[in-house]
Write a structure and sequence with these properties.
With 256 residues, the chain is α+β, with helices and mostly antiparallel strands. It has a domain of 89 residues: Glutaredoxin (3-Layer(aba) Sandwich). Helices cover 54% and strands 7% of the residues. The protein is built from twelve helices and five strands. The protein has a five-stranded mixed beta sheet, with helices on one face. The N and C termini lie far apart (37 Å). The protein binds glutathione (GSH). The site of glutathione (GSH) has 13 residues, from helix 2 and helix 5. The site of glutathione has 13 residues, from helix 2 and helix 5.
Length: 256
């Protein structure tokens, strides 16, 4: 689990649950949703990614890749949204968001792993590719190159600045993978109210933010009728409204 040791007194002295997040970030939505579903109060640290407020030495002292979300819990740094969810679930186990069935628990692990390894090559490639706008300015790229130790993150942003942006074949490959995943989700949701059975789990918390992100660029949701009904059920939940609907334009609209 990415718990990051620190000797930085400013971080060590932070009391309570401090969430560093951004409104439109699907990874941040997961944590806001978890906390709001469980009714856990948290201290709000808004990191304005549009204004590149993550590209500071102070923020890289919290998140080693300068990404959101990050959690500082009484001075303990946790990063990676899936790991933050698991950390919070350990700390606040009631009501349980872990499936009862061991096979479903294995499935949950696969879904959480996708949020770690699939975020840049699949989720972000599709969303930024279809948005077709550079994610950084030349000036913020220079700042990123100076602070970022993971060159592949620099390369990802550089590609959005290139003529033509992210190549179409990469976007289409990501879309194919996503369509396969939505087909699987739709099948699961034809059998149960929630992705892994009859109760909400971390799988639901991890997946619903992608709806909010992808609807902005008109992802074709109509082939997945059980998924679209599931979105409508989510939209009626107060925690969806506070954690996602109030932050992301269009995320309260009926899915098309
Ligand atoms: N796998 C990571 C991905 C985190 C991530 O890429 N966050 C994005 C927003 S969703 C970010 O901070 N982007 C800012 C940047 O790349 O400069 C997680 O789930 O926490």
């Amino acid at each position: 689990m990415p718990i990051r040791p620190t000797d930085n007194p400013d971080i060590l002295n932070m009391r309570g649950l401090n969430l560093f997040h951004y409104s439109y970030s699907n990874c941040s939505m997961r944590i806001r949703l978890f906390l709001d579903e469980k009714g856990i109060p948290w201290n709000d640290h808004f990191v304005d990614l549009r204004a590149q407020k993550n590209l500071t030495e102070e923020y890289f002292a919290i998140h080693p890749q300068g990404l959101v979300p990050a959690l500082v819990d009484d001075g303990v740094i946790v990063h990676e949204s899936a790991d933050i969810l698991e950390y919070l679930e350990d700390k606040f186990p009631e009501p349980s968001f872990i499936p009862d069935d061991p096979e479903d628990r294995a499935e949950l692990e696969k879904i959480l792993e996708f949020t770690r390894s699939g975020h840049f090559p699949i989720i972000k490639t599709w969303a930024y590719g279809r948005n077709n706008k550079p994610t950084k300015t030349p000036e913020s790229m220079a700042k990123l190159a100076q602070l970022q130790k993971d060159q592949w993150i620099v390369d990802f942003h550089q590609e959005t600045l290139n003529e033509g942006g992210i190549p179409e074949e990469k976007i289409l490959a990501a879309e194919q993978t996503l369509k396969g995943m939505f087909t699987d989700l739709d099948r699961r949701l034809s059998e149960h109210e929630w992705i892994l059975g009859d109760k909400m789990t971390l799988a639901d918390i991890a997946w619903i933010p992608q709806y909010a992100l992808f609807q902005r660029n008109n992802f074709p949701f109509s082939p997945y009728p059980n998924f679209t009904k599931y979105v409508v059920r989510w939209q009626k939940r107060p925690a969806y409204v506070s954690a996602i609907g109030n932050h992301m334009p269009g995320s309260m609209n009926a899915p098309v």
